[in-house]
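Quick start: what a row looks like.
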Amino acid sequence: MTKRAAVLLPSQLRHLIRVTEATSRHPERDTLILWLGFSCGMRVTETARLTVADVLMPSGLLRSEISLRAEITKGCRQRLAYLTNPKLIAAMDRYIEWRLAKRFGCSLDGRQYRGLMPKTRLILTWKGGPYELNTKRARNAAGEVVEYLAADSLQTYIKGLYRAAGLFEASSHSGRR
C-alpha cells in the first residue's frame, strides 16, 4: 500500500504561508509556488514546467484558466487549472514584479507578457534559470517501464519550507490535497 501525503488544515496552510513570508530568502517566488499547489492542485514538476505564456496573455493580463499541457502533467493527461483565488493572483503579480526588478527572463519589448519572455519558465531559481528536471523510470500498472521528468531539487526545497514551518508530516504533495 502506498503512503498518502498528509492533508493540511486551513490553519496549517496559513501558518506555512506566514512562515514562508517571514523566513524565506525568496518569499515572492516561494509563496507563489505554495499557492499554485494549494489553489490549483498543481504538482511540483507541473509548477516547475509552467511557462510565462501558460499564465499570461500577450496583453499581460493573467489568464483565469490555464491548460496544463499533457507533456507537463503526471500521466500525460491535459487538464485545466483555475487562477481565480485572490491570494494566488496577488502572489503572481508580486512574483512577476520581483522577476522584472531582477531582470530574470525579460524581453527587450516590454509591451507583451508584462515584459517577460513568453517561452521562459515561470518559476526560476534564485540565479534566474529554470529548475533542473531529472529523468526517472517507473513501472506502470501494465508492468512496462516508463520514463518521466521530476523537479527533484524544487521538491526538496519545498519540503524545506514545510519543515521550517514545523510541518514534519507534510510533503510538497500535501498542499494539493
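That is the whole record. The CA atoms of residues 18 and 122 lie 23 Å apart. The mean pLDDT is 90.
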